[in-house]
Structure formats: structure tokens, C-alpha cells
Write a structure and sequence with these properties.
Blueprint lengths: L1 H13 L15 H11 L6 E14 L2 E8 L2 E8 H4 L3 H5 L6 E10 L5 E12 L8 E5 L5 E5 L4 H6 L1 H7 L1 H23 L3 E2 L5 E2 L11 E4 L4 E5 L4 H9 L4 E9 L11 E10 L3 H20 L3 E4 L2 E4 L5 E4 H9 L8 H10 L4 H4 L4 H12 L8 E4 L21 E6 L2 E8 L4 H16 L10 H10 L3 E7 H9 L18
Parallel strand pairs: 3-5, 8-12, 16-17
Antiparallel strand pairs: 1-2, 1-4, 2-3, 4-5, 6-7, 9-11, 10-11, 12-13, 13-20, 14-15, 17-18, 18-19, 19-20
The protein binds one RNA strand of 76 nucleotides through helix 1, strand 1, strand 2, strand 3 and strand 6.
RNA sequence: GGGGGCGUAGCUCAGCUGGUAGAGCAAGGGACUUUUAAUCCCUAGGUCGUGGGUUCGAGCCCCACCGCCCUCACCA
């Protein structure tokens, strides 16, 4: 299969035509050429020069039809031996998937399709390997048959270039992704936020409960960790007087991979001095509502047959109240046997439930009873202290913290606090974490003395939030797996 | 990590209770100066994931390994 393409390359080069050009002066994208022809209203349109990949090729004796695809779409080309002259030799040695440039006059074929009648054909890059293209046939009765196509997820993700090349709809997901981050940046920029970049390689990781990736710095001969969160560095910036900061970047967590987890993923975090978590909740709601409007033009997105309404005010439920309502138990008052019994009622296996203690147990009760109900956009407010070592103690209930998470479709989209800025309180929380760590909790956080020192200088009261961009993208692009919204998801190396 | 499933031509798949492989599309050759599912004629293409084993004989059975998918666990 490949050899025929190499022979075509040799034949083309033997005729003095380079198989890989240096540049091409394109005058129109396919869609723009078609639009211009239609505006003109004449049988013969203007001359255009289009360029793209040859995605369909129908040689037919001394003429040939094909379709060229570029970023805007496809346009048909029509080549004739009597018009191309010597360049016809090139046309005879074209292969599907070659990159070509065609200059010619726009016309409409007998069948009615706007087409470039080629006066010049330029080979821009030879394709030596056929793309795994499918083919669809539409029968007279409207039924569609599909032959082949790239469906194997392994190949799609390993060879994302091929996946993108044959699936315009996949390319569209990543255009959408860029629109989303652009919208977010504009939203924050307009409100006086400064986009910053903080270290990815860190001597001490923190800001979340997760296992890190570890690497080694040769010159310093010391371990370094890939960050699991941006939080502690961004809060240092608040101390430094950068009052509104945000970062969009990758965090790395050395844990399992599944539909909603990739070892590196994109996190948005922003921090705002003199705001509390209520202010942040208002912003998160406004941002998401705006995003849904921007992307869909409406205020709802339909997912799994449910219209998720981002237009009306998001539901709000208290962590403790919500659990009491659905599980009939007060997690602040209940003892561990009570909570384990509740878990058993929800269907959690006894041996699994037996392993949960402390904050973990509370969190499991939440996940079992409340999380599944959080389909519409819902804020869950005021988490117990044990679950939130970086959040400020609640102003009216010392057992709680000022923290919320935002859920949609039962999935966490955002996590936010009134940021803990009392260095003595933070020190005590770190010490609790260290005790948990010594007791065997590998996800408990480290004591970060430099962060405490920063807080001692005085951090203004502030609200902050983290939003997982990949999961947000899954929602907005209606994709079932995080791999569908990450260009090159993590894979085991090919054997 | 546990459980389940899958890995056959470039792509998507079929292959009956084990008898040494098949389709469509793609590909190659030929015909064809308005096709778009082009059409018509002809042709070729596979160490059946890898390595062992059972058997007279294995794509099919057994074992191990590799990879992917689903699921559970872990992971807010």
C-alpha cells in the first residue's frame, strides 16, 4: 500500500516536481470561496487559490474530481487534462490525503456543486501513508452505510494526529476548548485579574490531597515534585500584593486513570483579595452562565435527557443539611458506627465501609447520599473542618469551614474557600495533616513552613476557587470521557 | 490492584461443535473529458497481539506475557 505512494512520489520527482513544497499562497479558505461565489451570483466566479488535504479523489479518465479540506471545510476541485497541460502528470500521481494547492476559477457543476476548476495544481506535501478513513454511503432511501473508519479508541488516542485528520468533529472539540479558555481569560482579565505562572516543579507539593509525581534535580541533587495544585503559590502572591491572580495550567496527580481522571489535567484557579466564598460563588455562577450562553447561545444544555439549566440561580444546599435530608443523619453529631451503618444502607459493602474513618468516612457518606442528587448546577456549602485544611473556619459555626463545591450531573466541577489566612490556624491544620500522614494517610498534606511564613507577613482576606477545565469541557462538549477533551491523553507506551 | 471482555487484511468486522482464513470499504492495473456511494472489467493483500503448551492437526482449547475497553477499588 505504501509502496504505491512511494512510486508516485518518485514519478512526480522524476518529472521535476518537488513532493514537499515550501509554501503556498492561499487566497481563500474553502468556506470563504464558496461564500464569495454565492455572493457573486454569476455562473463563473472569481479566481481563487485553495489549499488543503485531498480527502476525496475521483479520477475519471482525462478529468478528475476531488475534495480539498481545510480548516473551514471542504470544496470540490475539478481538474482537466486539457487545462492542466504538463501538470496533468502530477494529477495522475496524486494520492488520497496528499496536501495540494489548486488555483482556478469558481464554477458550478452540472450537479450543482460549487467547484474550483483547476488551472494550476501544486503538490504541497505527499502523503506516504494512507489515513484510516471511513466511508459513508447515503442510499436513495436516505439510509446511511458506513465502511471502516477510525473507531478503535486505542488508535484514536495513540495517533491523535490521524484521529484529528479524519474527524472534523474532533477538531471542533478542541476549537471549542480554546473558546472556553479564551472566554475564561477574558472574564477574569476584565475584572482586574492578573494571569500568572507559578512553579510546576516544587520542592514541596501541597494544596490538595493526592500522590505526586517525583523527579530529581541533578545539579541540586534533590527530589522535586510536579505540582498537584497551584493553590499555595497563588496565595503567596496575595501576600505580595497581587490582589487578583489566576492561573490556568496543568496539575499532576499520580493516581488511577479512568473516564474522569488523567494523570495531568488542566486546572483553573483564581484568588481575589477582600472577597469571601460567597463572592466567589457569585462569580463562578456568572462565569458558567456566561460560558453556556457563549457556547450554546442558550441557557441550558441537554445531557442524558436532562436539561441542565444554567440560566436560573444555581441551587444551594448545606453540606450538613443536605446529608441530613437524604441520609437522615447529622454528620456533625453522628459517631462513626452510625455513619458506617448509613453507608451500609446505601449499598456500600461492609468490608469497604469498615475501612473508612474520620474525614474520609464523612466524605463517603456525602458521596453516597448527596452527590447523586446534584444533577442541576448546585452549590454545596460549608464542609466540616476535617475535610478542608486550607479553608477558613466558618464565621458562625466553628465545626465547619467556609467552603463550597459546585456540582453538575453528580460531578464536582469546582472547589472554593474563604481562604484560611490566619497563620496560627493554618499551622495547626498542617500539624493535624502531619499527624494523619504519620498515621498512614499518604494523601495528607505536608507542613509547608515557607507558606506559614508568608501568611505571618499578613495575607488579606480572600476567596479562591479551583475549576477543573477538562471536566468542564466534558460537560460543555458533551463528551463521556476526559480523554475525549485532552489532545494527547496518557497511554501506556506501545509495545 | 480485583473481576469481566477484546486483540483476524490498511479500516470496520465475520469465521459454525478445533481440519491450516472470508466480506465490505480502502489498495494496485485497465476503460472513461461534469463526478460526488462515480461506474465497469481485472488483480493483489493476513507469521489470525507475542511466547509457550495440548493435539495427527489451533484463529478457535490451555498457560504466561503485552496492549486496549468496561467495571470495582484508589483518587474530593
Amino acid at each position: 500500500m505504501e509502496s504505491a505512494r512511494r512510486e508516485n512520489r518518485a514519478a512526480i520527482e522524476a518529472a521535476g516536481v518537488p513532493a514537499f513544497a515550501y509554501a503556498f499562497q492561499r487566497s481563500h479558505l474553502a468556506a470563504d470561496a464558496i461564500a464569495e461565489y454565492e455572493r457573486g451570483g454569476q455562473a463563473e466566479g472569481p479566481d481563487v487559490a485553495v489549499a488543503g488535504r485531498l480527502v476525496a479523489w475521483r479520477p475519471k479518465g482525462k478529468v478528475a474530481f476531488g475534495h480539498v479540506e481545510d480548516a473551514s471545510g471542504r470544496i470540490q476541485i475539478y481538474l482537466r487534462q486539457d487545462q492542466l497541460g504538463a501538470a496533468w502528470t502530477l494529477a495522475e500521481h496524486l494520492d488520497l490525503d496528499d496536501h495540494v494547492g489548486v488555483r482556478g476559477t469558481l464554477m458550478r457543476t452540472r450537479a450543482g456543486e460549487i467547484t474550483v476548476r483547476g488551472a494550476e495544481l501544486t503538490l504541497l506535501a505527499k502523503s506516504l501513508r494512507p489515513l484510516p478513513r471511513g466511508k459513508t454511503q447515503v442510499a436513495d432511501d436516505g439510509s446511511v452505510r458506513t465502511f471502516g473508519g477510525l473507531h478503535d479508541p486505542e488508535v484514536r488516542f495513540r495517533q491523535r494526529y490521524a484521529d484529528l485528520a479524519v474527524h472534523p468533529e474532533v477538531r471542533e472539540i478542541f476549537r471549542l476548548r480554546a473558546r472556553v479558555t479564551r472566554y475564561i481569560r477574558r472574564y477574569l482579565d476584565e475584572r482586574g485579574f492578573l494571569e500568572v505562572e507559578t512553579p510546576v516543579l516544587q520542592p514541596l507539593y501541597g494544596g490538595a490531597a493526592a500522590q505526586p509525581f517525583v523527579t530529581h534535580h541533578n545539579a541540586l541533587d534533590m527530589p522535586l515534585y510536579l505540582r498537584i495544585a497551584d493553590e499555595l503559590y497563588l496565595k503567596r502572591l496575595l501576600v505580595g500584593g497581587l490582589e487578583r491572580v489566576y492561573e490556568i495550567g496543568h496539575d499532576f496527580r499520580n493516581e488511577g486513570m479512568d473516564r474522569t481522571h488523567n494523570p495531568e489535567f488542566t486546572m483553573l484557579e483564581w484568588y481575589m483579595a477582600y472577597a469571601d466564598y460567597q463572592v466567589i460563588a457569585g462569580m463562578a455562577e456568572e462565569l458558567l452562565r456566561g460560558l453556556v450562553r457563549e457556547i450554546t447561545g442558550g441557557e441550558a444544555v441537554e445531557r442524558d435527557g436532562v436539561a441542565l439549566d444554567f440560566g436560573r440561580p444555581f441551587a444551594r444546599v448545606g453540606f450538613v443539611d443536605g446529608i441530613r435530608e437524604h441520609a437522615g443523619i447529622d454528620v456533625l453529631a453522628a459517631d462513626e458506627p452510625d455513619m458506617r451503618a448509613a453507608l451500609l444502607r446505601s449499598g456500600v459493602p461492609a468490608d469497604t465501609a469498615a475501612t473508612f474513618t474520620g474525614g474520609k468516612l464523612v466524605d463517603e457518606v456525602f458521596k453516597a447520599f448527596l452527590e447523586p442528587h446534584l444533577v442541576q448546577p448546585t452549590f454545596v456549602f460549608d464542609y466540616p473542618r476535617v475535610l478542608s485544611p486550607l479553608a477558613k473556619t466558618h464565621r458562625t459555626d466553628r465545626r465547619l469551614t467556609e467552603r463550597f463545591e459546585l456540582f453538575v450531573l453528580g460531578r464536582e466541577l469546582a472547589n472554593a474557600f474563604s481562604e484560611l489566612n490566619d497563620p496560627d490556624d493554618q499551622r495547626a491544620r498542617f500539624e493535624d495533616q502531619v499527624r494523619l500522614r504519620q498515621a498512614g494517610d499518604l494523601d495528607a498534606q505536608h507542613y509547608d513552613a515557607d507558606f506559614i511564613r508568608a501568611l505571618e507577613y499578613g495575607m488579606p482576606p480572600a476567596g479562591g476557587i479551583g475549576i477543573g477545565i477538562d471536566r468542564l469541557m466534558m460537560l460543555l462538549a458533551d463528551q463521556p470521557s476526559i480523554r475525549d477533551v485532552i489532545l494527547f491523553p496518557a497511554m501506556r507506551p506501545e509495545g
